[in-house]
Amino acid sequence: MSYLSKSPWIIHYDASSCNGCDIEVLACLTPLYDVERFGILNTGNPKHADIFLITGSVNEQNKAVILNIYNQMPKPNVIVAIGICATSGCVFRECYNVIGGVDKLLPVDVYVPGCAARPESIIDGVVKSLAILESKHLKMTSGNEATQEISKVA
Amino acid sequence: MVTVNRVLLLFAFLVGAPLLGGLLMGIDRKISARLQGRFGPPILQPFYDVGKLFLKQTLVVRRSQNMFIVFFLVFVIVTGAIFFVGGDLLLVIFALTLAGIFFVLAGYKSSSPYSFIGAQRELLQMLAYEPMIILAAIGMYMVTKSFSVAAIIAHPTALITTLPGIFLGFLYILTIKFRKSPFDLSLSHHAHQEIVRGIATEFSGPTLALIEIAHWYENVILLGFIYLFFANDPILAALAAALVYFLEIIIDNTFARAKWQLMVKSSWIVTLVLGMGNLLILSFVR
Ligand code: SF4
Questions:
Q1: Mean pLDDT over residues B131-139, rounded?
Q2: Which CATH class is domain A7-153?
Q3: What are the φ/ψ torsions at residue B186 (nearest 5 degrees)?
Q4: ipTM of the prediction greater than 0.90, yes or no
Q5: Which of A7, A44, A74 has its CB closest to that of B57?
Q6: For chain A, which residues make up each domain, given as ranges?
Q7: For a designed S-S bond to A100, which of A89, B33, B58, B252 qualifies (C-beta 3.0 to 4.6 A apart)?
């Protein structure tokens, strides 16, 4: 346990979500769930963020935006796909403009399924991603490639 | 003996100020959360944040932008060092301004539209608070006949009794100096989606941590100014500084953001009426 898992800062991006999952992400910040008690902050700035929360499926239009945000995040960082849309594309996967889940574009570390994903499972997913954040940092400092990427389903 | 004392004070400031500043920030976040009906982060959260930032990668737009932040931190520390060894109050004010200028330059250097707006707003903030800080120093000089912090502390009566207007004016601009709502324009701390993070937008990892630490030092120096107004009774003075900080947290949580026009106008009116008024009365009385 290092400081990384004590103060995870989040950037939240709405790909083509129906807004259901976004409302649930924002619900985590309300007094009822209050994720700030775990040190989690919603930064709105990729350069300050450790965790990239994506809701909704990836489409041709927002592909570039997602890559742009991801490239601006300092390492180590993790990607959490929120909702079944971000996980696999859900019912929209057959649409002509939809590419699919976020993992078609970026290496997703934690999948949080659900339509919409409940705040409890979103928090659970973020907490699960902290262990991956730690292991990525270890890999960064030791340069040890043997530590393999772990993807977990929250 | 005196020099030994001063070295000790200097050491206490260099080590103690960031610890105290970080702790105050943690208390601030906890109280703010409670005022909003939330549980809030641990008191030590600011230290965790800074610890984490040091573990992150540094991303820059231009390499030189980090130099300005280093200078910002260095000059804030120099300011505090002069203040806490009992040096010249005017020098303290000028060094603090210089530190602020480096912060603004860092914002301009990182060439993002958000940091540009943040830097411009920071300049406006300086325009708003600087006259009052100078008047505070002049007021203290008129009462104690000295600009030296050590002499001001040694003055037998509490300065608040002769400088009540200046004290109130200083309280007003303290909100701007702490970068708290209603005047948190340059860093956009609460409305962070508005201009993202203002000046700090383009800074990441260790450099962002340095900005945080500089703010801790800055806050302690500002509370030191409050201490000066009650300096003849150290316990009362420490209590007053704590109360003022608490008041700032309440103000932060109760007021909505103001526009910069209101900030500049109102702070100059306050400076003119309370600051100048106090000085005028003082010059008539003696
Ligand atoms: S998973 Fe359901 S609630 Fe979430 S974005 Fe997709 S359709 Fe909306």
A1: 91
A2: alpha beta
A3: -80, -30
A4: no
A5: A74
A6: 7-153
A7: A89
